[in-house]
# Entry
Amino acid sequence: MARPWIRTPALAALAVATTGWAGLAHACAGAGVITRIEGRAQDVVISRTDGGTTSTVTRPRVLEVVCHSDRITTVGATYVVLSIDGAGSVKVDQHAAYVVPAHGGTPSVISNAYSALNDQVMPDMKRLPWNVRLKGAGDDFGFALPSLPTGGQELEAGDRSLLVRLVGGEAPYTVQIRDASNAVVAHQTSPDHDVVLPHVNLAPGAYKITASDSTPRAMDATIAVVTTPPPTDSDFASLGDPEIRTAAAAATLAREAPTPWSFEAEQQLEAAPANGLDRDKVYELIESYGTD
Amino acid sequence: MNEDSTQHPPRKTRGFSLARLVRERRHGPEDPIKPPARKTRRFSLAQLTAERRRAVISFSAGLIVLLLIQIPAVEQSFLGAPDRQMMDTAFKLRADLIRGTADPILFIDIDDRTISQLGTKPGSFDLPPATTPRALMADLLEFIRTAPPAQAPRVVILDVDIAQPAPDGPDAIAQLQKELAAWATTPSAPPLIISRQPYPGAALGMDTPAQVLPTSPYDATVQAAPNIYWATPRVLGDQFGVIREFAPYDCVLTSTGMKPLYSAALIAYQFIERDPKVLDQAAAKHWMAEGAAQCQNQTAPQLRHGERIDYHFSLDLGFANRAWPSLDKGWPGAKACSDSDSAVVMRLSAIDISSAFKAGGDVSRDILCQHVVIIGGTNTSGGDFVQTPLNEMNGSAVLANAVRGLQLTHGGLRPIPLIIQILLLAAASMAMSASALASNRARTRTRQLRRSHEKHKLRHRLEIIFLNPVILNGIIALTAHGVGIVLLLVSLNFGLWGFVSAPVFAAAITETVQEFADG
# Structure
């Protein structure tokens, strides 16, 4: 009877595994699958590198496995939706190629021993990444707009830039916007707390905003995109400076209807032309409404 | 008693000594300052006798613990803690490193995303469905059943109790019934094992001490099907609730009488083991005969000890932190399934498969090819999470470890012969005796130092600390614990394990107590 596991000496296997080789023996190891191809399958191009050789997967099918470091592009109007472990649903179209991220956390005896040691000495902290264990989680990480994670905020539909303001945490910060089908419609990484996502095409429906920092910690907020515009106030029409005018209108909107329009108010101010106003003060004012 | 030359009064020296003259003629003149070194034996006969007595008593104490710990109830108590810890460390060190030639796992995960998409109002504050929608299960099973035979999985385990109330109504139940009937009549369909939850008789208002398997809308279809099996997903934990074993069977009362409800892992192993000889000799196979014999009447006791789980891969929450090893090239399915994922485990969200399949078109079945497919749920509604030696794990992930572990170990983990365990204990006991003899003089000096009231130098203080029998024997016991972990790292690959740590600790404690008692 063939018993390869006996032929391979266990100690040698462990020694080899120490280098992490076991996880890299094959380039295609469980990154995810294609869940949807909208358009022609032949317009989806997957470039795969295995052992220094690059090949192209032609006419991929739905539920075809995609590998770590695969480069996926599409041609014309065709787009493809992927389900990637750790990254969720990812939509790839002709505008930008998607490179499946390399898998972190390759197992080895060393990393396992470190983890086992942590279980012994810091059992309550074993779920936290090592940098958080050593440094501590730092100050509280959250959305600057307190009502954002509790829900109820609305935005007017359209192609617009989105400002998501964060507090605390460790830079860099990443914000992802997902639609109701959980597909990523926009994502942006920023070194500071104000993360701007340019040209987000928002159709009516529910969207989820996920913000994360480098420790990593993550949090979600849900917003509803609606076709109904927010109420406008004509009292400030006489103000000459468009930035001041918009700031006054936005602050009034947030004061009179913090839910559901505080987030929309911040977006209005973000869209206004800059003319020297200390916007942070206005944002803080907007964020202060509705917190009592 | 040990003698120390430094403690003797100075010798009287004469101006002339015949003996000294003879020595000088043989070896030249002596150093007039340094007195000649006295020949001393390292151990006296009395010391050897005393140490032998201590060693026999210490070994006997260890042996008693070793024999007691063979009883599952004792092993699961505090006495088994050192060996459990040893096994846990070995599991942790080899986690996600063991490839083997066992079949890979495809985990179709009914996760929170899946459940949220199947709720009444996704994106709202409405509660998600309490149980898995039956229509989803029917879709997943149809996707698997309609795979070309060359890409069919080895076995499918549905780790969801379908007897629970369906959240999506009678139409969905009918859809699942139809799919199960189709499964039963499809010759190329792989074996399907469905988890069922037995309940105490009292929970169903029945006056019986037996566990009862409630009826389900699918009973008639499953009982008539040649390739569908009910199974128990029950697992067993230690005193801290850490899951280490699975129940090989449950004796359950059904509408047709008492029956053994075998473990999903055990049934699956019988289908995936490729070598009939290995299957015939599998250590775990005895449970099948035992289950049939035990489950004859309603007073059959519930098992408190089962089959050990060979944890060899982790499935952490979120699945974002691990890369599983690639399959061994010796995996028998490697040639036929070259387009499949190469990792020993793959997890896919059930909603992705269901949506892709329902959308129609050209759908790949490569992901199924000769895999063990487990359909289970990490969703919060199910709350199916348990503590394991590796980490907090979903119940389906424990099942995956159990099934693949059985195949990797060729039929289950087996204890190494008792005589080898006794020899290991004897070796540790001898090491303790040898240490006691070797350090006897130093220990005597340490005792003297400890009793003196003078201020000690740092070296003396360290001597007092490190030559303490508690420390020395403790170091030997911990070394045995470490050696045990290393031995397990090797032996687990051959499906073998044994007790070392608790018996050695018992011997070390006994040895230490005796040393203190002997002064």
In short: The radius of gyration of chain B is 32 Å. Chain B has 18 helices and 17 strands.
